[in-house]
C-alpha cells in the first residue's frame, strides 16, 4: 500500500486550490462581462456604440448620456412608483411573514390542526405564479384597482417563503428564553418583539433584502396591471422606452439600465453583512 508523502499531499492540495480558483475566476468573468459592457456602453459616444470591432473602453467618458436618458423618458415618475410599491410591499409582506411564522412556531394550538395547516401554506409555494395572473386580474378589475398602486401591491402582500424561513429561525431558538418571558408575564406580542425578532435579525435582514429585490425587479405583474405611463415602475418603463416612441439610443438605454440597477447594488452593499450572517445561520441551524 502506497503512502502519500507530505510533499505529494501538498502538491495535490495546491493543484486542487488552483483548479477551484481558476474555475471561480472564469465564472466571475463570464458573469461580470455583461455588466462591464453595460457600464462602459453607458459612457460611450453614439459612434463608439456601433463601431466594429467593438470598443470595450471608451476614449472619453460621456457623462451627459445619463442626463439625456433621464430627460428622454419620465424616469423620475418610474422611480417614484418603484420606490413606493417596493417599500410598502416589503413592509407589509415582512410583517405578515413575521406574524404568521411566530404563530406557527411559538403559539401553542393542537398539533393535529397546526401541521396540516402549515402544509397547506407550504403547498402554495408549489403553485406557479403564472396560474394566478388571470384570477388576480379579474378580481382587481371588479374592485376597479387596475392601473392603481393597490393593484400593484396587494396581490403580493403575503410571502410563503418568508413565513417558512422565519418559522425555522424561531423554532431553532432556545425554549428557555420563551419560558422565562412567559414566567415574567410577557405576552406573545411582547415576546416576539423583545426576544424572537432580535435573535432572528440576520435572517430577517436576509428576507427583507430578498423581498425588496423581488419587488424592485418585478416586471410581469406591473406590466399586466398598469395601462398608463404614470403608473409604470422602472422595469416596465425601461422596457417601454426601447420602443420607437422614445427614440432612445443604446448608450442612453444602458445609462437608463444603471438607473434600475444602482439602488439594488446600494442595498446589497449595505446589507451584505446581514445577508451572509443570515445564510450562515440557516445553513448551521437548518
Briefly summarize what is shown.
The protein has 15 helices and no strands.
Q: What's the tally of helices?
A: 15
Q: Note the run of SSEs as H and E.
A: HHHHHHHHHHHHHHH
Percent of residues in helical segments? over 70%
Most strands sheet:
none
Low-confidence stretches: 282-286
Radius of gyration: 25 Å
Structural class: mainly alpha
> How many individual β-strands?
0
The overall pLDDT average reads 83
Shape label: flat
Strand content: under 5%
Straight-line distance between termini: 40 Å
What do these coordinates show?
With 286 residues, the protein is mostly helical. It is built from 15 helices and no strands.
What is the secondary structure topology, with strand pairs?
Blueprint: H1 6-42, H2 46-49, H3 64-72, H4 75-106, H5 111-123, H6 133-143, H7 149-153, H8 160-171, H9 175-183, H10 188-199, H11 201-216, H12 220-225, H13 234-240, H14 250-270, H15 272-285
Structure characteristics:
286 residues, mainly alpha, flat, disordered C terminus
Amino acid at each position: 500500500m502506497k503512502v502519500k508523502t507530505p510533499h505529494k499531499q501538498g502538491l495535490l492540495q495546491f493543484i486542487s486550490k488552483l483548479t477551484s480558483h481558476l474555475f471561480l475566476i472564469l465564472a466571475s468573468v463570464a458573469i461580470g462581462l455583461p455588466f462591464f459592457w453595460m457600464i462602459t456602453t453607458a459612457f460611450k459616444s453614439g459612434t463608439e456604440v456601433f463601431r466594429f470591432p467593438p470598443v470595450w473602453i471608451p476614449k472619453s467618458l460621456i457623462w451627459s448620456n445619463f442626463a439625456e436618458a433621464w430627460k428622454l423618458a419620465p424616469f423620475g415618475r418610474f422611480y417614484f412608483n418603484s420606490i413606493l410599491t417596493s417599500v410598502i410591499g416589503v413592509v407589509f409582506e415582512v410583517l405578515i411573514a413575521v406574524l404568521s411564522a411566530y404563530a406557527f412556531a411559538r403559539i401553542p394550538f393542537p398539533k393535529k390542526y397546526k401541521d396540516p395547516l402549515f402544509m397547506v401554506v407550504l403547498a402554495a409555494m408549489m403553485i406557479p405564479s403564472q396560474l394566478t395572473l388571470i384570477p388576480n386580474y379579474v378580481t382587481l378589475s371588479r374592485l376597479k384597482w387596475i392601473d392603481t398602486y393597490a393593484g400593484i401591491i396587494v396581490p403580493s402582500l403575503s410571502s410563503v417563503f418568508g413565513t417558512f424561513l422565519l418559522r425555522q429561525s424561531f423554532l431553532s431558538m432556545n425554549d428557555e428564553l420563551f419560558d422565562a418571558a412567559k414566567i415574567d408575564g410577557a405576552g406573545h406580542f411582547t415576546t416576539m418583539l423583545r426576544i424572537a425578532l432580535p435573535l432572528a435579525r440576520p435572517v430577517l435582514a436576509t428576507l427583507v433584502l430578498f423581498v425588496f429585490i423581488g419587488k424592485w425587479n418585478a416586471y410581469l405583474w406591473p406590466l399586466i396591471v398598469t395601462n398608463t405611463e404614470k403608473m409604470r415602475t422602472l422595469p416596465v418603463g425601461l422596457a417601454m422606452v426601447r420602443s420607437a416612441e422614445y427614440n432612445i439610443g443604446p448608450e442612453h438605454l444602458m445609462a437608463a439600465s444603471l438607473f434600475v440597477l444602482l439602488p439594488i447594488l446600494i442595498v446589497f452593499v449595505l446589507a451584505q453583512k446581514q445577508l451572509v450572517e443570515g445564510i450562515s445561520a440557516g445553513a448551521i441551524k437548518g
